[in-house]
Amino acid sequence: MSQDIVRDFERVSPELVAEAAQFQAAIFSDVAGRRGAMHGRIHALRPRMKVAGPAFTVEVRPGDNLMIHAAIALAQPGDVLVIDGKGDQTSALMGTIMMTACQQRGIAGVIMDGAVRDSLEIDEMDYPVFSVGTNPNGPTKNIGGRIGHPVSCGGVTVNAGDLVLADADGIVVVERARLAGLIPGCHKKVEDEAKRIAQIKQGNTAASWLQASLRAAGVLKEGESL
């Protein structure tokens, strides 16, 4: 098979995917050092949509979906298609027919730096799709691309097999080798945030770090307080 298509790569395990899926994208982004989040131009087609799984990477020329068809045929159940469509919004790369094929093959969802169409029908399918928006124009199917290679999607490098986790806030990419080490920090952050929210509801609304940070920024002089 062409060197443009990498069929075999190591994926994050289903067990780690299941554990990671319980967290918000925001939690992973914070624990990973506030990095790995795709540009906000790529967002859920509907806010309720969520997906987590190993990235199955696809690179296409703007407005051409030939390699996406190939990717649907090659992806494994549980994979998430991550498509570098160059941010193009002049035509849709996928619609109901292709999304139905993805759903039928057990592909967990689609994340694309490009546009989609048939959005109302995809909504009725309740299939997780994240895109830069919609456009009724259809794509061409003429130009080669790459599958299974590193891609740039929403300004983030995505390697095949990395974890992608997406929800109403956006999409976070976690390198496969880092995932297991970050999950304990995610648990701790959820616990810490729950404690802080409980304190706020009891009337303790002032952030403990605020005064010192205002002094460090020169907003307050030493000895001053809000």
Automatic annotation (TrEMBL):
**Does the UniProt entry include the keyword DNA damage?**
no
- Residues binding Mg(2+) are D118
Q: Which organism is it from?
A: Malikia granosa
CDD domains listed in its UniProt record: RraA_family (cd16841)
Q: So where does substrate get bound? A: G95, T96, I97, M98, R117
Keywords annotated in UniProt: Magnesium, Metal-binding, Methyltransferase, Transferase
What cofactor does this chain's UniProt record say it requires?
A: a divalent metal cation; Mg(2+)
Q: Which PANTHER family match?
A: 4-HYDROXY-4-METHYL-2-OXOGLUTARATE ALDOLASE 3-RELATED
What would you give as a GO molecular function for this chain, any one? methyltransferase activity
- Return one Gene Ontology term, BP aspect: methylation
Record lineage: Bacteria, Pseudomonadati, Pseudomonadota, Betaproteobacteria, Burkholderiales
Q: Which InterPro entries match?
A: RraA/RraA-like, RraA/RraA-like_sf
The name of this protein is Putative 4-hydroxy-4-methyl-2-oxoglutarate aldolase
Task: List the SUPFAM superfamilies hit by this protein, alphabetically.
Answer: RraA-like
